[in-house]
Amino acid sequence: MKIKHFLLANAVLLSAGSALAAPADNGELIKQGEYLSRLGDCSACHSLPGKPAFSGGLAIESNLGTIYSTNITPDKEHGIGNYSEQQFSDAVRKGVLPDGKRLYPAMPYPDYAKISDEDMHALYAYFMQGVKPSAEQPPETDLSFPFSQRWGMRFWNWAFASDKPFRPIGGASAEVNRGAYIVESLGHCGSCHTPRGLGMNEKALDSGDKDFLAGGSLNDWEVPSLRGLPRWTEQETIDYLATGRNDKAAVGGEMTSVVEHSTSYMSEADLKAITAYLKFLGGNPSLPAGDDKAASATEAKLTAAKNLTTGERLYLDNCGACHFVTGKGAPGVFPQLDQATIVNAGDPTGLIHTILAGAQQPSTAKAPSTLAMPGFAARLNDEEVAQLATFIRQGWSNKAAAVKADDVKKVRETLKH
């Protein structure tokens, strides 16, 4: 049995398109580390526009307060230039700095714990030799008591983190296991898409638990389940990760940054592996079923444009030109509203925020155009947005709860900050 697992693990790590094949020279090792940093989405948190790459300073809002990302360039005074490879590994995989100081799990070390030694070596080579040093000094994280007592993270780690390495899924293909490795470790997808416990911990860290990737909440946005993605084909999933859009949906919220800085740089083989793994996990039975009769009724009423409710009128005036009376949008351009996850979410915050602030798709190598939806915060008042959102959540096949003006008011307040 041990021999079987050893062979399977090696098949996974050395499969076609894997970033783990041994590099021919140091230059290749650094290049490999750069690619792995994209898989890990390091740039999204540690780089800011107008600042040197990886010099930190991003303000990460959490339930504990504001946490600022650190400088991870090889600068010896302000960055990580004095770290040994073991110290680098301990910081990434255990959340422990060379001086013993504990990191907060805004740094997803509970997921990074599964990064292989080979990948950690390549990452270290890249950050020490492939990144330019920067003397930029980010703001210090200063949380209120008791969260300022970082030593307490020792007990949090004992209760909620794990030092177990990645374990291939028995009986699964090498492609599925490659996807599992990326998703569970470098991709740290569970940090957003897995529900959190009372200790703000991920309830599961791998596919051995049904809670893993079953959906969660981030800054009041409901984050969808990734298990099975039953409404998307394999190609639609690949397209979404590579470009931020497919024939049914367009990226929004925090996922915009993930596509922009990480998934759009992944190889075709790795995108296929991730897709194969997510499909392997099985479907999500909580999604609402399509209702052709209800969808046709909504379409017919909007087409006739008679005896409209306030929400229906607002939809035709503000949304119909792009999303159409069918609620189907335009494939690859404007997302569907009928049966959309963000529309049917239990918490309407994501939909309200999008109506108020708008959204913009990222520019990627395979889809360089930056299509944008305007925000309507200045055009519509709270009651109008509530009526519009309610219609969208209850039109066509959608069967979500109504939205109140107070719900909109709360989201609008967040835009001011």
UniProtKB/TrEMBL annotation:
<keyword id="KW-0249">Electron transport</keyword>
<keyword id="KW-0349">Heme</keyword>
<keyword id="KW-0408">Iron</keyword>
<feature type="domain" description="Cytochrome c">
    <location>
        <begin position="28"/>
        <end position="131"/>
    </location>
</feature>
<dbReference type="Pfam" id="PF00034">
    <property type="entry name" value="Cytochrom_C"/>
</dbReference>
<protein>
    <submittedName>
        <fullName>Cytochrome c</fullName>
    </submittedName>
</protein>
<dbReference type="InterPro" id="IPR009056">
    <property type="entry name" value="Cyt_c-like_dom"/>
</dbReference>
<dbReference type="InterPro" id="IPR051459">
    <property type="entry name" value="Cytochrome_c-type_DH"/>
</dbReference>
<keyword id="KW-0479">Metal-binding</keyword>
<feature type="domain" description="Cytochrome c">
    <location>
        <begin position="174"/>
        <end position="282"/>
    </location>
</feature>
<feature type="domain" description="Cytochrome c">
    <location>
        <begin position="306"/>
        <end position="396"/>
    </location>
</feature>
<keyword id="KW-0472">Membrane</keyword>
<dbReference type="InterPro" id="IPR008168">
    <property type="entry name" value="Cyt_C_IC"/>
</dbReference>
<dbReference type="InterPro" id="IPR036909">
    <property type="entry name" value="Cyt_c-like_dom_sf"/>
</dbReference>
<keyword id="KW-0813">Transport</keyword>
<feature type="signal peptide">
    <location>
        <begin position="1"/>
        <end position="21"/>
    </location>
</feature>
<dbReference type="InterPro" id="IPR014353">
    <property type="entry name" value="Membr-bd_ADH_cyt_c"/>
</dbReference>
<keyword id="KW-0732">Signal</keyword>
<keyword id="KW-0677">Repeat</keyword>
<keyword id="KW-1003">Cell membrane</keyword>
